[in-house]
Each structure stands twice: as C-alpha cells, then as structure tokens.
C-alpha cells in the first residue's frame, strides 16, 4: 500500500497521543522537536508496517541508531569510510547532511515525516 504524509502524520499522532495530526509539520524532526521516544519509535515502526504491508525493522526505517552502535561505521567519535557510505545510502550522496562529521543529534534532527515518506519508498 502507498502511504502519504497525511497518513504518516496520523500514525505519529496516534502513537504519541497528539491531538491534531494536521498540526504536525512534515519537515520537523519527530525525535528532537516532537519528543518521540525510543519506545514511541518502535510502536510507530510497527504501526507503519501494519498499514503499509511492508516487512521492515525499525533499523530499516531509521538505520542511524544501528550505524552509531556499529564500530565498523562509527568509532572513536568519528564516521568510518563504511559508515559514511551507509550515511550516503540513507541520505543521498550529495546531501549536506553527510558532509563533515554529523553528530547523532544532527542526524536525529532529520527524522521527519518527509524523511519517512522517502525512506518507505526505498525499503
């Protein structure tokens, strides 16, 4: 099933008990600006799977957490060549997001409904 930004916002609002799905700005981070917790995220990924009928894990939806925990991707506070390549796969090779040394907080700021919509097409 194809899912759009309004559908995604509705799921976010249900999982996070927000009153108005239409008030969620699709470019704003669900983690840093709306306070999505790790438990909310897992519930959200589960609900997205149910609605879309796609099979994926939370790490498929937001692979940054797994990359940060993987020493072949991120070690001693810096991204490895493997990690950079994976970031480019997720965010796009020419994305400003992957230039420099993006921190976890900087990356979390990009987990938005806009990102999720794009990510779902890649899964």
């Amino acid at each position: 099933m194809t899912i759009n930004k309004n559908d995604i916002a509705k799921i976010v609002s249900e999982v996070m008990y927000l009153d108005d799905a239409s008030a969620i700005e699709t470019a704003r981070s669900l983690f840093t600006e709306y306070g999505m917790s790790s438990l909310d995220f897992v519930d959200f990924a589960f609900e997205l799977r149910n609605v879309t009928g796609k099979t994926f894990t939370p790490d498929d939806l937001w692979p940054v957490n797994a990359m940060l925990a993987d020493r072949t991707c991120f070690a001693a506070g810096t991204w490895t060549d493997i990690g950079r390549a994976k970031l480019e796969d997720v965010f796009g090779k020419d994305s400003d997001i992957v230039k420099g040394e993006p921190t976890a907080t900087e990356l979390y700021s990009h987990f938005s409904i806009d990102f999720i919509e794009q990510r779902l097409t890649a899964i």
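Residues 61 and 116 are 7 Å apart (CA to CA). The two ends are 13 Å apart (CA to CA).
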